[in-house]
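Two entries, shown back to back:
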Amino acid sequence: MSSELAGLRREVEESQKRVRDSNKLPYLVASIAEVLDLEADDQDVEELNVGKKKSRHPQKSAIIKTSSRQTVFLPVVGLVDANKLSPQDLVGVNKDTFLVLEELPPEYDSRVKAMEIVEKPKEKYTDVGGLDKQINEMIEAVVLPITEKEKYVRIGIKPPKGVLLYGSPGTGKTMLARACAAATDACFLRLAGPQLVQMYIGEGARILRDAFALAKKRAPTIIFIDELDAIGSRRSDEGSKHGSREVQRTMLELLSLLDGFGSTDDVKVIAATNRIDVLDPALLRSGRIDRKVEFTLPDEEARAHILQIHSRRMALHGDVNFEEISRMTEDMNGAQLKAVCVEAGMLALRNERVYVAHEDFAEGVTAVQARKKSSLNYYA
């Protein structure tokens, strides 16, 4: 009996030494293609039975794809608990036996990591003026499905997966998206449409895949895609050039990703565009980007509110009348109204005053209108 125990100990020590040596050797990087539940055969079941209780013991197997472009079926996974593995996971495998030696951290494109905002956005709804209707629509479509998901479950409806913000430039689309992320305490991941149009084939689609994978890992997350028309324009038969084909390939990947996650997931997509008329209908159909929110130029009352928001930290003279100034700023968007406040402050500094007077705002309006007119003449 003692000799048998000694022999078993030697076998265990040799096996442990082989395991240690395998871990030290260079291994291949592979990804899990599929995890399978296989039942052991009858002989194995008899050996695994405990006492008189008989049951079939499921056995986890896996299919892996290695970096050397091999697809391998593993009846026995290896040194990693197969229950912890899922498709698309990266693993290190032995280059001879292909047994899984360890799990590897997920790999994301470096450009996607740079797009992540670690600190939560600090914008609030009070920082957005003249958009009360749009704020209510965004709360229903984005904020409540994350913060009060149980209400939607109780009623039995599915919240929207995505929201499209469309309207003129400078009307507050990006600021409202950041305010929604702050209200949900969510990570804010901003992608710009032109950045997704890459020179090399498949690069834009890969950035999108990595962005959505990162968003799911950091959930709750709001993915904000600015200038969606850069990759989401309507498809046509003229897309024979390499650039057009690559844009269409990126858009098809976005469609696939929008179909790939549920409306109850803590990942919401907010897209913004100035040209809703050029977008492909496949993007706008129900089940992908369900809600469309229009951003128009602010009216007189909204312009006065926006001016008050951007000047609340300024030292104002008592004669400042925002209602009168708002009547002078017809056809101005929120960004231009902010520029009026900045210009008024600069005029006060030039005149060596410690406060901003009404005439400073009036001159600021004139200066911004002159810049606006010159830019229009430039593009004419």
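entry 2 starts here
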Amino acid sequence: MSKAIDDPVIISVPADYIQEGKIRAAIASSSNDYCSIAMKSFPIPNLGDCTLETLMHLSDDMAKMDGTLRSLLEKIAKTYHDMSLDGSNAKLTINGQSLSQLLEDFHWDETRFPVKSALNEHKNTIQQDMKHGENEMKKMIQKYQDVHSNVIALKRKRGTNILTTPLSLLLKEEEVMKNTGMTLKQVFVETEYLQTVVLILSSSQEKEFLAKYKNLGCDEEDEVVKVVPESCRRLLVDGDGYTLYSVVVLKKYLKKIQEACRENRYTLRVYEGGENSAKKEEDEVVLAENEAKEKKVKSDLLQWCRPNYAELASEWVHLKCLRVYTESLLRYGLHTTLYTFILFPKVKVVAKLQKGLETLFAGLGGSVDAYGAMKDDNLVISAVAGSESTSYTYACVSVERLSA
């Protein structure tokens, strides 16, 4: 009856075969309570007849479309969910209704699917909308992935490792001001004789460094100080346990200080302003522009998902109607007046429900002569056409639940 045993199922039988009251009594009485929601009539209008060959082609085509359209709806729902993890967006609905609510109160959309139109026209309408939705979804996701990749690449280029990232990208004016009380321009002194350098060390080396940095590059008998006293500034600490300090050194002794840093396992880096600062600003602007574009593309995609999910889900339910209608004509013959209803099975009693329905509609299984000229070939025709209800004596189509 259904891919998940408790999925709703639309069932169609000849209207003159059994009274509606008997169906209701069989599935919902004091001794038989098989459904979580009371049985609902599922009004499908008379959509006309067509040739047997056309019906078989329609049945086969629509069975394939069903799975494709459901996959598209699931993809839209997953995309919407994954991009709404901050909880800022409400759950997807079908014009304000859940799938279950839509099925409980279903009305054929005469505006979208005029009763006078042929079955094949209805199928083509849904197929065209489905393909358009697939193409639009593909384009929008690709657009988002492209701009998202750009943002990731720019952030990677900017880097996050204090040992390798350009200092012009690491050192933020606000953070340096907060930690030192000085601007970058004030921290990084450069004259004919003096230059500010950056030393990177692990947090475990800090105490030792602060005690000896003034003597970096000095021999025991050396009376010339290579590092300006009290010039040490703690600029920042990164998440990997490294600390970044600045010190002012005498330019002529820079090479000697570099050797001393290597011996003490400090990393010495030279900060260069000018073009690097301009490049930093340019990179930050480009990143900000791409982040804004990513946000806009994401917003557009989420906005696209809401109405298109609703429209395609509604068409998916109409496709289910077309399938059960076509299956009914194949089973019961042309010109048959149908009674269609929907059931919402309870998980634990599905087997009993199926048995009850088989008993109730047992006469439809092989005695279909009264309902059309196809006679005993009906079940074979249904099987050839790819019907999912060939195991039953009645026409039925499952409505799988959608994640939203």
